[in-house]
């Protein structure tokens, strides 16, 4: 009875609806008095977790119900249980389960072909298979948001240690324990692919663990992501290695202690942009041997920082991701002994490939070079660098700008570059345009976004305010630019707050309130850009209190760039003493009474702002460098402006110097304008501490005087004072006008001709050049590049020989690398980190004129190369240089493999795969010369014929055995060569195998090996994939 009840309950949990009323007699209502209630008899047991069927499972089961009915009938008819016959109606059986002992007949019954098909489809269609655990990860959920800190090359990847943690938790769930109480060992963990986490949406991981062997698979989107083996050790302490703390010689002068900031700056340069809990390395030495990790009760981030630690100390700067772990031991009880806010010692035993920290030991990590994300590059901008006056109107129009209809675009470009340069280094600009009732095709916003975002790493957040916002929003090109649209009237309220730039068209003829509201939308130091008619009066500008910064004319229109005046103003929160006179102007808030009154502070003492410090630079000497460094350092702490001045020199690097200073720490520091004497007086005479809210300003300014007729620089001179009042970063005086140097787009026929001439000038012949693919994997991007040997000095390379290359053949490795089919990390040593890895061998002449051939690690496709004399040979007189260029790699490979490593002797037998290849022909030639019996494989009849012609000693297995007692050529397309070799050697096998085949053919080649034979593997596929060698 209990077995049947349990079976029915399992059917119910699977999503079906058994008719439980058939299990008892019919109840007559109302029930008798005193009948006990059912509810108190039911208690919830939460000790076991059950996988709940989804709607798709239920729908699928109902769909199959009619077809499964025949199976249910057969089960009922064959059940001989007395209780079933008397009390259970056959209609309750809507599903069957072979897992129940009561249904053992079902597993033994022979099912029809249709029934087997139904079962198979049911297994495939189900959203969750038996024994499978589904884990959902959503970055939008609070518990998963920390994963966004695992940013690799600009993408959020699910951590490799996250997979291990999911498998560990799944095993703990199957064992009915908490993972914090279950020590585990994971072996032969293979990471097949990475999982890129979306910003929105759910990623589902399916984990399957086999009970008997512990083999597991973690799948995502139907494909295997991670595989390996996991088990619970009997004694976890015996699974780890007891190793002494690694030591580094104290005398090592290159040993440095790195902080967290140092470590993650270095990792960021490699492409690892970690944040949050994934910045868990607290300190380390620069060798990456000893350090400390943070333990924040998060297993994923903790183990990931151990993998990060293994990267430190490596000389390569490339981006690597883990692809294999030989063994992982996790001891949670040992980890519990650690303090949550204490640093956990971590040690890297690089010689044996082990990392130990806390209760975790990682062994045998293999990392592979990850392809860097190819950034989509826009078409190159063709520009010229020219001086442009700030006031370019009327007669002052410069000839540097075209007048062929592009004046408007160029005038707008110059104005926007001034805004960008004087926005304090902001990378995200907030911009708004007052559209009014203008049509969509007259908006400036699309051009503004295009011009500003063409600059590196600049992002524009732009809003268009007008009465036709709904119409603008329907334009697809506007929405693609990320433009926002609002219905707002600038005559009644500001467009926004803290904007860097506000744009308007024909604003001056409108009411003064419109311009005032545009100004009110700006942040301190912000700009207003107006496109107006030339005939418009500028009285409105004067009344608004704005400073005219730039005036760029474009035919009958003019672009006016206006800026909020930067003044020394302070809002004072205090009680005014008697010696201060008060008149209504500025707001003052009294913290005691809570009353706000308007006051203007007038001091009887004259207070003067700090004058800027002037540092004059010159190309004649560099004595000013130390003074400039000291002045800049003081300006950061004291908030004092610095004017970098160049006068009397027509050519100077001052513009680039100031641009570099802006990129230095503190280069774009903002400071409140401070009046030191004034501030002391306030502190001593006011009852409450003043609240200073000043205007934000940049500290560094450039003054470049290229006009020899200008007077000597003086801040009090009106020529300079008027310009400095505008508070611009770049101030260049040339040809009697103030301006700056700007990038102007080339587009006209004249400029294009100049560009073509410049390109022709750059495309010149050089003596030292090499070939490289500009884009790895794109053969069309192969280019000749001038090499570093243009500056070759023999004294600095005493152990190298400079050779001129006449011929450089294309090897199979070159083709695979250039086409992107072979990853660079498959190469030995640190070649993967080099910019050019093409070219292995060559033939040419050395500096003495000798005909030579040789090998190089890379960069052999060149006009000249530096060669180690050890790998340089003189070419025989009977060979041409073209023939000699094909010899070094294939014969060196064959000789090293067969003679040096394989110890080949006369009378041995040899199996060489791919006999018509370069290494294959060289190996056959060497072996036949030494008196070795050769077996080889080819893939076509054409290649068979070539080998028989090239090496008459070889005979074909297709010929009659009567005339060919030793048949030497077999097929390489399948494993039939195994039977052929064993037959020809009478089951003994061969003494040496030179293998380049993979997978099942590799295994067949191993079986061809005789006892005490030598197996020489020159392929990379099976070794890279960690495939087993032998059976």
UniProtKB/TrEMBL annotation:
Natural source organism: Timema bartmani
GO biological process: fatty acid biosynthetic process
Keywords on record: Fatty acid biosynthesis, Fatty acid metabolism, Lipid biosynthesis, Lipid metabolism, Multifunctional enzyme, NADP, Oxidoreductase, Phosphopantetheine
Chain intervals for the UniProt region annotation (C-terminal hotdog fold): 255-396
Molecular function GO terms recorded: fatty acid synthase activity; oxidoreductase activity
Segments forming a coiled coil: none
Higher taxonomy: Eukaryota, Metazoa, Ecdysozoa, Arthropoda, Hexapoda
Active site, UniProt feature: 150, 304
PANTHER family noted in UniProt: FATTY ACID SYNTHASE
Protein name stated in the entry: PKS/mFAS DH domain-containing protein
Domain PKS/mFAS DH: 116-396
Keyword Lipid metabolism: yes
Pfam families given in the database record: ADH_zinc_N (PF00107), FAS_pseudo-KR (PF21149), PKS_DH_N (PF21089)
Residue segments, region N-terminal hotdog fold: 116-239
Oxidoreductase listed as a keyword: yes
């Amino acid at each position: 009875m209990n077995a049947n009840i349990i079976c029915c309950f399992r059917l119910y949990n699977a999503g079906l609806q058994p008719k439980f009323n058939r299990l008892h007699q019919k109840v007559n209502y109302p029930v008798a008095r005193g009948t006990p209630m059912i509810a108190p008899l039911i208690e919830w047991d939460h000790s076991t977790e059950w996988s709940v069927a989804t709607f798709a499972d239920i729908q699928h089961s109902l769909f199959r119900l009619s077809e499964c009915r025949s199976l249910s009938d057969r089960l009922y008819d064959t059940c001989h249980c007395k209780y079933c016959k008397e009390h259970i109606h056959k209609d309750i059986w809507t599903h069957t389960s072979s897992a129940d002992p009561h249904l053992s007949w079902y597993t033994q019954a022979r099912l029809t072909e249709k029934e087997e098909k139904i079962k198979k489809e049911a297994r495939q269609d189900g959203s969750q298979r038996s024994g499978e655990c589904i884990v959902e990860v959503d970055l939008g959920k609070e518990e998963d948001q920390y994963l966004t800190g695992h940013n690799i090359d600009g993408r959020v990847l699910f951590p490799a240690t996250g997979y291990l943690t999911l498998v560990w938790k799944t095993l703990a769930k199957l064992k009915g324990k908490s993972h914090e109480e279950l020590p585990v060992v994971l072996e032969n963990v293979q990471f097949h692919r990475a999982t890129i986490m979306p910003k929105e949406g759910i990623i589902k991981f399916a984990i399957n663990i086999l009970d008997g062997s512990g083999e597991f698979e973690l799948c995502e989107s139907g494909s295997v992501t991670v595989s390996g083996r996991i088990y619970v050790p009997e004694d976890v302490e015996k699974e780890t290695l007891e190793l002494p703390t690694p030591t580094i010689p104290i005398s090592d002068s290159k040993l440095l202690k790195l902080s967290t900031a140092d470590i993650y700056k270095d990792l960021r340069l490699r492409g690892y942009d970690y944040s949050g809990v994934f910045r868990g390395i607290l300190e380390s030495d620069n060798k990456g041997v000893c350090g400390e990790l943070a333990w924040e009760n998060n297993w994923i981030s903790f183990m990931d920082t151990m993998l990060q630690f293994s990267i430190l100390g490596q000389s390569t700067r490339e981006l690597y991701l883990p692809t294999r772990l030989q063994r992982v031991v996790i001891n949670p009880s040992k980890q519990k002994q650690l303090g949550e806010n204490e640093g956990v010692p971590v040690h890297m035993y690089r010689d044996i490939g082990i990392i130990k920290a806390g209760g975790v030991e990682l062994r045998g990590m293999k990392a592979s070079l990850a392809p860097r994300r190819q950034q989509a590059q826009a078409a190159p901008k063709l520009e010229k660098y020219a001086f442009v006056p700030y006031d370019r109107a009327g007669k002052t129009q410069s000839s540097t700008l075209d007048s062929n209809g592009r004046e408007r675009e160029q005038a707008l470009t110059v104005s926007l570059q001034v805004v960008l340069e004087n926005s304090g280094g902001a990378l995200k600009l907030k911009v708004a345009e007052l559209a009014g009732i203008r049509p969509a095709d007259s908006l400036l916003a699309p051009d503004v976004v295009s011009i500003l975002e063409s600059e590196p790493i600049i992002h524009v957040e732009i809003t268009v305010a007008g009465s036709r916002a709904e119409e603008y929003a329907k334009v697809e090109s506007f929405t693609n630019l990320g433009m926002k649209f609002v219905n707002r009237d600038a005559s009644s309220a500001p467009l926004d707050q803290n904007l860097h730039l506000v744009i308007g068209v024909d604003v001056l003829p409108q009411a003064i309130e419109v311009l005032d509201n545009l100004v009110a939308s700006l942040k301190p130091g912000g700009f207003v850009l107006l496109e107006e008619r030339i005939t418009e009066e500028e009285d409105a500008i004067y009344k608004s209190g704005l400073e005219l910064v730039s005036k760029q004319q474009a035919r009958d229109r003019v672009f006016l760039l206006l800026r909020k005046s930067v003044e020394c103003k302070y809002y004072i929160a205090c009680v005014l003493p008697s010696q201060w006179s008060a008149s209504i102007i500025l707001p003052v808030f009294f913290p005691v009474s809570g009353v706000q009154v308007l006051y203007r502070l007038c001091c009887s003492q004259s207070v003067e702002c700090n004058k800027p410090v002037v540092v004059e630079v010159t190309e004649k000497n560099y004595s000013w460098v130390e003074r400039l460094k000291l002045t800049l350092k003081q300006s950061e702490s004291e908030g004092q402006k610095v004017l970098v001045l160049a006068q009397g020199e027509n050519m100077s690097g001052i513009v680039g110097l100031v641009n570099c200073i802006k990129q230095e720490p503190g280069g774009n520091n903002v400071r409140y304008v401070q009046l030191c004497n004034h501030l002391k007086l306030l502190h001593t005479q006011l009852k409450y501490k003043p609240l200073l809210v000043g205007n934000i300003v940049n500290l560094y300014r450039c003054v470049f005087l290229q006009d020899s007729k200008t007077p000597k620089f003086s801040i009090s001179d009106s020529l300079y004072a008027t310009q400095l009042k505008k508070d611009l970063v770049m101030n260049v005086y040339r040809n009697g006008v103030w301006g700056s140097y700007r990038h102007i787009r080339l587009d006209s026929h004249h400029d294009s001709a100049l560009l073509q001439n410049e390109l022709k000038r750059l495309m010149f012949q050089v003596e030292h050049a090499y070939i490289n693919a500009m884009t790895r994997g794109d053969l069309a991007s192969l280019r000749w590049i001038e090499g570093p040997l243009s500056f070759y000095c023999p004294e600095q390379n005493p152990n190298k020989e400079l050779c001129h290359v006449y011929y450089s053949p294309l090897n199979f490795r070159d083709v695979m690398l250039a086409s992107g089919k072979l990853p660079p990390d498959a190469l030995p040593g640190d070649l993967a980190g080099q910019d050019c890895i093409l070219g292995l061998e060559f033939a040419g002449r050395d500096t003495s004129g000798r005909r030579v051939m040789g090998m190089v690690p890379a960069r052999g496709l060149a006009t000249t190369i530096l060669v180690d004399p050890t790998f340089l040979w003189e070419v025989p007189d009977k060979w041409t240089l073209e023939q000699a260029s094909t010899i070094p790699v294939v014969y060196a490979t064959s000789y090293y493999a067969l003679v040096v490593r394989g110890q080949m002797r006369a009378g041995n037998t040899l199996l060489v795969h791919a006999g018509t290849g370069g290494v294959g022909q060289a190996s056959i030639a060497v072996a036949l010369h030494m008196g070795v019996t050769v077996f080889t494989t080819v893939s076509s009849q054409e290649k068979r014929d070539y080998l028989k012609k090239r090496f008459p000693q070889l005979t074909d297995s297709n010929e009659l055995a009567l005339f060919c007692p030793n048949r030497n050529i077999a097929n390489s397309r399948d494993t039939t060569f195994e039977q052929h070799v064993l037959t020809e050697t009478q089951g003994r096998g061969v003494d040496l195998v030179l293998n380049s085949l993979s997978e099942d053919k590799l295994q067949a080649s191993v079986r061809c090996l005789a006892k005490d034979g030598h197996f020489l593997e020159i392929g990379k596929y099976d070794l890279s994939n960690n495939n087993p060698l032998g059976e």
